[in-house]
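Writing this down once: the sequence line spells out the residues, with the fold written below as integer tokens. This is how one looks:
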Amino acid sequence: MAKTPASAPNDTPVDAVSGAGKGRATPTRAEREAARKRPLVPDTKEAKARARAELAAAREKARAGMAAGEERYLPVRDKGPQRRFARDFVDAGWHLGEGVMPFMVIVILATLVPIPAFQSWAFVALWIFILFVIGDMILTSTRVKRAARDKFGADRVEKGLGWYAAMRTVQMRFMRLPKAQVKRGQRPA
């Protein structure tokens, strides 16, 4: 019979025989505690400044993406092909609502004129202008909904699309977000 290596000497560790040792000494308790220690206040000034800079860069990227109309940076309110269609429809035309703010500034300046009749007529003109703006909003809302029904189908038109387009008409073109992607007169397909 062949001899088996079952009778290994007792003073040899098991890991040395199998060759699966960790290759370093077991750390002492003091070494383990020192490795686990963390500062009481983990954020240093450098870490805060770095985090602030990273956040600012991410916000700037998101702002630029939203202004450019990139779908992933848009808020939920502005996402989707129908909302893009409504934005392009509104941005392609001229609307009275864009003139509300400048007209209000003119009325404020008119109130500085010390003639009461002039001041009164300025306010009357403002209210008449606002009525025309409301009419333009209703007309635009109806036209956008009709065009969306023709393009996307009557049963697939999103709820609130007309209101979304009407609210966009009141904003001055250079202040709209997402920025206008079409030129005036360039109607969406």
Remarks:
- DSSP finds seven helices and no strands in the chain.
- The radius of gyration is 35 Å.
- The first helix runs from residue 14 to 18.
